[in-house]
Amino acid sequence: MHKANVPMAWRRFKSKYNLVGTKCTKCNSSFYPPRLICPKCRREGKIEEFEFKGTGKIVSYTIIRSGPDGFEKQTPYPIAIVELDEGARVTGQIVDYEDSDLAIGKKVAPVFRKVYESGKEGIIHYGIKFKPEN
Amino acid sequence: MEKTGIVGYGAYVPKLRIKAETIADVWGQDAGRIINGLGITEKAVPNKDEDTTTIAVQIGKNALLRAGINPKDIGAVYVGSESHPYAVKPTSTIVAEALGVGTDYTAADTEFACKAGSAAIQMVMGLAGSKMIKFGLAIGADTAQGAPGDPLEYSAAAGGAGFIVGKDKKQFIATLNDTFSYSTDTPDFWRRPKADYPSHGGRFTGGPAYVRHVAGATNGLMDKTGTTVKDYDYVVFHMPNGKFPLAMAKKLDVPKEKLMPGFVVDKIGNTYSGCSLLGLAATLDCAKPGDKILVTSYGSGAGSDSFSITVNDLIDKKRNLAPTTEDYIKDKQYITYPTYAKYRGKIV
Q1: Is B84 labeled as catalytic in the residue annotation?
Q2: Which of B231, B256, B277, B299 is deepest in the core (most CB within 10 A)?
Q3: Is the distance from CB of B76 to CB of B125 less than 8 angstroms?
Q4: Which tens digits make up the pLDDT trace of A36-86?
Q5: Domain assignment of residue A1, yes or no
């Protein structure tokens, strides 16, 4: 997980809090994190802001048992690559799961959660994680 | 002042639970006596990445699903809690940002022990009723603290509910007929700055605190509106434990069955600022058009807000647009005391 200072985090609130990415209206490809240029259509492409519903399915996952700075106390926690219904793939934590939910193809829905804290006195970083859908 | 009403409501309870007997085992207490004494069998615990903000965001999303309004039409966002994640920096602006409210809104965090959420409802009633705003969002949410070994550890829970209040009668799920408050300076429960856990006056939290204020506000509301207990189909009293609200019902001649739809404390504990609001949300989940609901919150310190509410036809179309309180209560996962202690920051 990329750790951000205050202005950098603030610039990304919109895309972090609600999976707001971009879409190329020429080829219909969607991107998260947001891209400013379509890699397929290049200068012919037309990029627009696009909000993903956040629902999708697990493409792959792993369990982090030795977390990086700021995540040590959260271990163990699963991280998954989730293919969103609209096409883009994002990496995020899986929460509120039973062990049987950790499976390729499992449907997930977005939840707003605390991602990490910048120490005891820094800001709290929030973002989207995923929970299994029944 | 125009009449205001609830146009959307949402609830949220975290998935994790700890059983009263699990806590009692750690402290060598008699679980049966605790469960019988407090009337709580288990309580909801926030996951390691949940706090008042994340709970309030989920509540807001559920309320918006039911309201079906453009979030940018919300002109006020108030979040009531006694566990705001920041001492300085509002929870309410994070919630509004996550809900897409935009920039043209007023916001503040409220704090009044367990009644910060009901106070927020009164604030948006005033703003919407006086046409200063179109819609206001009032949320009560908490991740309540209880010191290890303290009786509060059995009850202090996490969760909450919120209400979008508007002034267009055609959009009312339920009409907010009237409200009445009763407040005094009564130090029955408090937490000083930088203290991790609250202190309380033990038995003093009963008669002079809970009983006096809940009865004061409830009787005051009924006097003001010319109603009696018989006029209400459902009643919600703040639920600090499973005993106080039942004793209050007995004192005010409220039949127990009128309390039961909103009586959630035995299964999830006391969700503090979210408590009476969750009781109201659970009651709306099963109320019929035309039903009348009386809700009285209680916040230590101390005060009570009482509301008279009439359910409208729209409830049948709206209630299933978001998960119900019961959906959240049923979706649970038990944790051990060490896991609970770790997640609540009691050991690391």
Answers
A1: no
A2: B277
A3: no
A4: 999 999 999 999 999 999 999 999 999 999 999 889 889 999 999 999 999
A5: no
Q: Is the pLDDT of residue B288 over 50?
A: yes
Q: Quick check: is B114 catalytic?
A: yes
**Shortest distance, CA B224 to any CA of chain A (angstroms):** 42
Which of B245, B327, B318, B250 has the alpha carbon at shortest distance from B282?
B327
Q: CB contact, 8 Å: A73 with chain B?
A: yes
Residues 6-45 of A with CB under 8 A from B: 13-14, 17-18
A124–B contact, CB cutoff 8 A: yes
High-pLDDT (> 70) share of chain B, %: 100
ipTM comes to 0.95
CB B252 within 8 A of CB B227: no
Res A3: pLDDT: 65
Residue among B167, B111, B180, B178 nearest B141 (CA): B111
Binary contact (B57, A114; C-beta < 8 A): no
Which amino acid, one-letter code, is at A72?
E
- Active-site annotation holds for B82: yes
- The domains found in chain B, sorted by start residue, are 4-172+317-343 (3.40.47.10), 178-315 (3.40.47.10)
As for how many domains chain A has, the answer is 1
Residue A2 has pLDDT above 80, yes or no: no
What does the pLDDT read at residue B345?
87
